[in-house]
Amino acid sequence: MRRQQQGFTLIEVIVVFTLLAMIMAMIFSGIDAGRRTAEKGEKRITAINEMRVIQGIIRHQVSRAMGIGVAESNDGQILKFMGDASSITYVGQMPGYLGSGGPHIQKLELVNADGGMLLQFTHGLMSNYDDEDEQSAFDSAEPIVLLENIRDGAFAFIEVDEEGLPTDWVNELENPVAMPLLVQLDLEMQAEAKEDWPLLQVAIQVDGSSANMRRRNSTLNMLQNRDNNGETK
After folding, report:
1. Coil, helix or strand for 17?
2. Contact indicator for 44, 195 with CB cutoff of 8 Å
3. Which end of the chain has fewer CB atoms surrounding its CB within 10 Å, N or C?
4. CA distance 71 to 51
């Protein structure tokens, strides 16, 4: 009788190692896919948090614009809030850890950059201008980049017309002597931003007499009652 053959043949060993290689490849592929998904999720969470922080800063600063003259027109009028599609300039308080005490001139501006646009914030302590040649801290301040990877964007405003009624959204303030009711910042982000910009609309909180505040609140309530066609109900 022939002795019974023991062990594995070469073909069996090759088949086993091939199956093991396929199993390991599937395992590592799943691990890599999970890692890439986690990284993508982390980047999106970071982008969302960045948007929230930036919007929180803008909302806090713009809503508390003080209605103090920021510049003087050619005919001697005191301009309290200057704004167009690319920038807004106003006076407001800065948090203590960001600026020295007193009102600061603040400017938010959309500027062109390589491959897109940037949202910049500049601020500087107002000067008393006792000397005509004196330069304010705002004039020498370096802008801070708040947001990058912007494809396009614009500021818009709702102000009060001569009859005391709110206007439609406009991209340039016609009456910078008065404070606007609402300020809007609409941005279109590039793919590198990883997240869209939620439309930002800020109501200006202006200190003043009770009568003026009642009139302003009444106008804001009127805005809330507008229908989708922009008509007042």
Report:
1. helix
2. yes
3. N
4. 31
> Cα(219)–Cα(232) distance, rounded to whole angstroms?
11
Widest distance between CA atoms in the chain = 122
The pLDDT tens digits for 44-102 are 677 788 889 999 999 999 999 998 888 888 888 899 999 999 999 999 988 765 556 67
Exposed / middle / buried, residue 161 (Cβ in 10 Å: 0-12, 13-18, 19+): exposed
Under DSSP, the state recorded for 101 is S
Q: Tell me the sheet residues that pair with 125.
A: 104
Q: Are 122 and 137 in contact (CB under 8 A)?
A: no
- The CA distance from 76 to 57, in Å, is 32
Q: Which tokens sit at 163?
A: 């009859």
The CA-based dihedral angle spanning residues 144, 147, 148, 152, taken in that order and rounded to the nearest 10 degrees:
-120
Rg, the chain, Cα only: 30
Looking at 190-229, which runs of residues are DSSP E strands?
200-203
Q: Specify the length of the chain in residues.
A: 233
